[in-house]
User: What shape does this take?
Amino acid sequence: MSDSAAFFPAILSRYRSVAVVALHVLLLAAFTSALYAFGIIRFLPSHETLLRWDVIWYEQIRQHGYTYSATGMSNAAFFPMLPYVWRFSGLGLRGMGLLNAAMFLGASTWLAHQLRLPVRLQLLLLSTPFLLFMVVPYTEALFFVFSTLLVVGLRRRKLLWWVLGLLGCGLTRSASTMFTPALLFMVAMWAMQPGQRGTALRWGAAGLGALLLSIGLVAAVQWYQTGEPFGFILAQKHWGHTMKRPNFPFTDPSGTDVLWLDALALWLGLAAAGVCTWLTWRWLQCWRTGRAMPPLPPELIFALGYCVGVTLFILLYQGGSLWNIGRYIFATPFLVVILAHWVAQPAWPWRRYALVAAATMLLWQLFGVYSLNFDSFSTGQGIWYFGLTTLYLLTYLAWRQLRWQREATMLLYSFNLLMLLHMLDGWLQYYVIQ
Assistant: This one.
């Protein structure tokens, strides 16, 4: 083979993650233009359609800074990173959405390269429906960027990246609520691995310091502008974020368009809780016997702990509503870390997937599918809805060993893009898509 003939395959191999992202952007543009041309989606991002939901509050902070009210909703419940990046950029609504999309694509490319994701898996993950929030002025893109920095920092043992990632996340949204327990759990597991106690404690102390600094900076900004340093905490009660007992059946104000995704996020959170419980049991055994824990990547432990933290927060503070759990879990690099580890594990016997399917169908009773008319569906319709949701889940779980993996990937990818654009179309029309 000549040098010129070998050049392009070598370049493609080296920049494979970039090529996959470029292919995804082209396919997404083609899907969008086709669906818009045929009237299947009716709205595209513009100044008029992007000023929706939380964007209104971020725009208010960008233009006028923070306000705090002791008697009602205020923008003090939001964190400063996005509105101040937006202010300093000088961009409008659509420009900020494009900047968010560019930041997400860059971070996801870097993450895929660092984790050595298979091409098909990278393409599939780029189609995750909740990634619609990467093209609107929401915090998801910045959170993804900083979370990627901390994940890669953990993976490559770059302490500064880890600290900057945690600090950035803490300034972008209320990350310390979910990150602190995940960090402590990671340090405990990591410290029990052979020769890792000092490293784990040092990284844990640096991480806690970064989270405390982020809280201090947010408090300082709000104190300077409103006179109330803890407005972001006090304002939560006016947004309904108070501890309450979960009501059954679980609900979702976004309706059946989004509930299946939030249900899958709940499934992942509960599965992560099961894995963390098993790891804790192993940790106790090792602690009692003096043996070392088997090696486990700290970024994976942190990702599992994060999913558990999000799930507990949603269940304890939203009274049985699963609103937002999907975007808090699926629109993050922590999903990528977990799936990258999962597909590298040995294949399962098919009977094990049958047991998972049966247990999952039982889990959906949390939504009253067998005992109540789920969302005006009949019992049969509800079972069909959750049966399809379970099939979707099983396809991801068994993806690594599917004989028709290429065909399954393209089918899932196309379906995901269709749902992403459908949900974005609804969000742009001010429908409840969270």
Q: What stands out?
A: The chain is about 70% helix and 0% strand. The radius of gyration is 22 Å. The first helix runs from residue 3 to 14.
